[in-house]
Each structure stands twice: as C-alpha cells, then as structure tokens.
Amino acid sequence: MPTNSDYDKYLTSKAASLIRENFPERGVTNLLVVKWGRRWRNTLGHIKPLESKDFGSVIEINSLMKSTEVPEFVIDAVLMHELVHYFQGFGSNHEQKSKHPHKGGVVDKELARLGWGELITQSDKWIKENWHPLVQRELGQKTRIIRKKRPWWMG
Length: 155
Prior knowledge:
Number of strands: 3
Distance between the termini: 55 Å
Shape: globular
Oligomer: single chain
Number of domains: 1
Strand content: 5-15%
Radius of gyration: 18 Å
Structural class: alpha+beta
Order of helices and strands: HEEEHHH
Low-confidence stretches: none
Largest sheet: 3 strands, mixed
C-alpha cells in the first residue's frame, strides 16, 4: 500500500514532468508547491498564492483522486488545468493574461493549443460519470441541516 509520502512524490514528479513537456518555453518563476489538498465534494483542484504571488504558489489537488478508481489521465487533466492557471498569471507572479481565469474559455483554448483537447474531453466524461458516486462512497451522503425559522418576536 502506498504511503502518503509516496503519493506526494508521485504528484510532485508528475507536475514537474508536465511542466517540462508542455511549458518548455516558460519557467517556474517563484516557489511552486504541488500537493494533495482536502477531500472536497465539488472541487478537483485549485491554485492560490503562498503569502504573496512573488513568494510562491500552491496547487492543491483533491485527495479523493488518490483512489485507484481515478484514472491517471484525470489527475493529469486536473494538474494541467491548474498549471495553465499558473502560467496565465492566476495565483502566480506570471503576467496575468486576462481579468477572469475562465472567461472566454481561455483555459480550454490553451489546453487545446497544447494538444490536450481529446484527453480533457475523456477526463470530463469520466468525471461526469464517476465523480459523484466516488464522493458518495468516500464521504457519504451530504446531510443538510434545516433550521426552523424563529418567530420575529423571539429575535
């Protein structure tokens, strides 16, 4: 059984490999940390600055993706999506290419330009068909707390 350290090394080396293969003309210009994040229901990954954009950036990938049920191409697609954000200046010190990170499909267009269009389509299909059942098995049914509204005279 792989240890957490094994998973961390896997994710870090995977990100380094994707950067070398897909962004050779661009460099990592600040500290870039790639790690497993929390087990979110609806978030596959995200990028944010570490303290400040000039200091560094952190990409977190949903820890539910450690499951053997998740194909490697799905992890690759999520990592590539976040790396595109990094190189487009979101959560990093690179020049920001647009005001909003997804406006006009800029991420999808960049992924298609890099030759990832077909893999992204396959990944989206797998996520649509399999993600929510995986989340329900791992995290259980989401329960809603319904609060009764107090009468106005009770404050």
